[in-house]
Amino acid sequence: MNAAKVALFAVLAVLSGIFFLQWIRLARRRELRERPTGSDLGIGLLTNFGDALGIGSYAPTTALYKFRGRPSDELIPGTLNVGSVAVGIAETAIFVTVIAVDPKLLLAMVASATAGAWLGAGIVSRMRRRSIQRFMGAALLIAAAFFVIGNLGAFPVGGVALGLPGWRFVVAVSANFVFGALNTIGIGWYAPSMVVLALLGLNPMAAYPIMMGSGGVMLPVAGLRFLRTGRFAWGPALGMSIGGVVGVLIAVFIVKSLPLRILRWLVAAVVTYAAIVMLRSARAEAASGSGAGERLNTKRGAVT
Description:
Blueprint: H1 3-29, H2 38-52, H3 58-68, H4 76-83, H5 85-98, H6 103-124, H7 129-151, H8 166-183, H9 190-199, H10 207-229, H11 234-255, H12 261-288, E1 296-297, E2 302-303
Antiparallel strand pairs: 1-2
Helix pairs in contact: 1-5, 1-6, 1-10, 2-11, 3-12, 4-10, 4-11, 5-10, 5-11, 6-8, 6-10, 7-12, 8-9
């Protein structure tokens, strides 16, 4: 293992340790700790099984949360980011270890995504419910569009390079900053990252350690900001953590591959419907004037 990967894993270990210690400390201070239900565990397993196969988990997880009506809309971004930390660690350990990529590009992409996630989480953790509904509705529509485009074979195929020189390096790193920020509102970074890196000529396989490494490091950073505000659902986040890791391990070591075209069409349909429901909820609240005075108490993590 080269020095860049060793450094990445060292940073990942430190950030993950800080994150989980903070989560445990907060859980011990709470008088009522919500436990994950069977559906929380099942959603985490199912969506992160697909995540490890390259489908992505944020859009389908949001859709399933919306269908069952839990957690509430304003808690979904934080739940996704907090609950995905353990999954990100598992995927980073697997994909970064076995797939080669230019170490300088890997570290720069991880750093830029992490900076974007820190900025984005600070904004999202203080947004009003109605704004979150609108942004997540748009995010789901974008995700559905990527599923459709991918199934139609319209994605660029990529090149053979394991690194990107000159201006391509700058464009890739800058784009990853934006994807890291958008990820905190529920726009997954797999599809847009794959598209940009392919257009720049990177080998599609080399994109995997970049995507997984970015997620592994930026998720604890974003998650810490949501922990500070308390704006996430404890039970669903824990269920995603436990079920998600199991789903990743099953996908990578047991199933390994599936015919994904039909599954992507199904996910696209489900996500599109969830986007419409989310946007209708925002419109209904705007029409009724509910939530007009909603604010986040950053000390207590409550909506008042």
